Amino acid sequence: EQFSIMETDKSKMRKVPLQPSSIVQYTTEISTTSFTPLQKELLDATLEHADLSIMIGASEVHEMGKMIINLNKSKKVLDIGTFTGASALAWAIELPDDGKVISMDVDHAQLVKVGLPVIEKAPKLRAKIDFRLGSAVDTLKSLIANGESATFGFAFIDADKYNYPIYYELCLQLLAPGGVIMADNALWNGYVVEPTGRCSQAIDKFNRIVASDDRVHNILLNIDDGVHLITKKQ
């Protein structure tokens, strides 16, 4: 069958694409022409050395985020889910010299082991990234408490799926009008169609909250494992 629901092969920890592999390969190749050597080095290091390397976001998703940051001239970015720092690096590449990425995760083991040795080869990029260890919910609430609501241009959500609805609401408060949220894994291997597990139910809930929210424009894209693209109305 040419098209099939994406499934998780637990023995190999890989994903079976929703589209034919030849199409996936073609679109990835065309979409990643601006992928930098440092991004490629971090991707290769993650795939080779990181635990659960499947957790790294798709390269074409990171490139789409870079394009959005360029389009809306973001200077401040929220990055929820650090892992090895690949997404934070992508956003830093596109930000101006005075830009800032606040990247959040409850575990920095893979960042320290794999990501930082690569990212620190580019001190100017590293200086743009504020890696914060701890609950992203707490970090986002602290930013709101510090008076930073409506000051961020872009937010990327790629962390624990149960908290997507909470991350969304907090990010929306922190985004300036015209700001963009990109939520990764919004199709959750296709299981959102008939959600039965905790993760698929949480993501389905999140997708439907966004779709019914009159504060935003949204579109759910069939890219990699699904990207929900959300713009805060001006």
Automatic annotation (TrEMBL):
Gene3D superfamilies in UniProt: Vaccinia Virus protein VP39
Matches recorded under PROSITE patterns: SAM_OMT_I
S-adenosyl-L-methionine is among the record's keywords: yes
Keywords annotated in UniProt: Methyltransferase, S-adenosyl-L-methionine, Transferase
CDD domains: AdoMet_MTases (cd02440)
Gene Ontology annotations of biological process type: methylation
InterPro entries per record: Cation-dep_OMT, SAM-dependent_MTases_sf, SAM_O-MeTrfase
Pfam family, one: Methyltransf_3
Classification via SUPFAM superfamilies: S-adenosyl-L-methionine-dependent methyltransferases
GO MF term set: O-methyltransferase activity; S-adenosylmethionine-dependent methyltransferase activity
Presence of keyword Zinc-finger: no
Family: Belongs to the class I-like SAM-binding methyltransferase superfamily. Cation-dependent O-methyltransferase family.
Protein name: O-methyltransferase
Source organism of this protein record: Pristionchus entomophagus
